[in-house]
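in:
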């Protein structure tokens, strides 16, 4: 998807509860009812994807609000964030979230925010300008298992992976980093970079 697709304003979170929602590379801009894309907490997501459903071919425009939330697992494929809002994607409840073929810019703080014990597998991504690629919710000690493969990570203010949990694991493989800060921040049970 490029950034020149048809534009639509989203005034109520689009909920994807089964099957595949294919955005056809339209550009979805959050309306003010969802938030302003700043660092204020409590903004609403543009999309909420649940129960293993797939969200595909989406551009999130210059108001990203709270991005995409996943519940009980989800697949996100070919997503482009022109200007990440409060964060790009949040795992809200347990399950496996698979993210592939994504590109995102200008997350002031977090790109991926993980708020539940879960697995996140990311492949083929470009993340430019963020505080960090991933944050397990501050102060939480549940276990997450994260893999990031074949990504291009540029201009992180702080680093790549951050947790406060000594049971969580993270793996970064086959990726290119430039000004990406510290790869592993916090007491990860295991956190590795290879390839
Ligand atoms: O603990 O949960 O920043 O999901 C406080 C809150 C806060 C979250 C998180 C998020 O950490 O709102 O964006
Ligand atoms: Ca936040
Ligand atoms: Ca931003
Ligand atoms: Ca958020």
């Amino acid at each position: 998807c490029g950034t020149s697709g048809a534009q639509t304003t989203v005034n109520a979170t689009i909920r994807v509860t089964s099957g595949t929602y294919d955005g056809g590379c339209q550009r979805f801009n959050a309306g003010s009812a969802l938030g302003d894309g700043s660092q204020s907490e409590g903004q609403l997501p543009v999309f909420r994807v649940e129960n293993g459903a797939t969200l595909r071919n989406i551009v999130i425009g210059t108001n990203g609000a709270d991005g995409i939330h996943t519940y009980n697992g989800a697949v996100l494929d070919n997503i482009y964030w022109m200007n990440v809002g409060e964060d790009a994607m949040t795992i809200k409840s347990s399950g496996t979230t698979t993210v592939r073929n994504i590109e995102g810019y200008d997350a002031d703080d977090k790109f991926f925010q993980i708020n539940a014990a879960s697995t996140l597998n990311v492949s083929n991504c470009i993340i430019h300008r963020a505080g960090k690629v991933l944050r397990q919710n501050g102060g939480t000690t549940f276990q997450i298992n994260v893999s990031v493969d074949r990504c291009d990570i540029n201009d992180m203010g702080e680093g790549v992976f951050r947790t406060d949990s000594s049971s969580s694991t993270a793996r970064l493989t086959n990726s290119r980093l430039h000004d990406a800060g510290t790869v592993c921040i916090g007491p990860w049970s295991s956190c590795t970079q290879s390839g």
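note: The mean pLDDT is 98.
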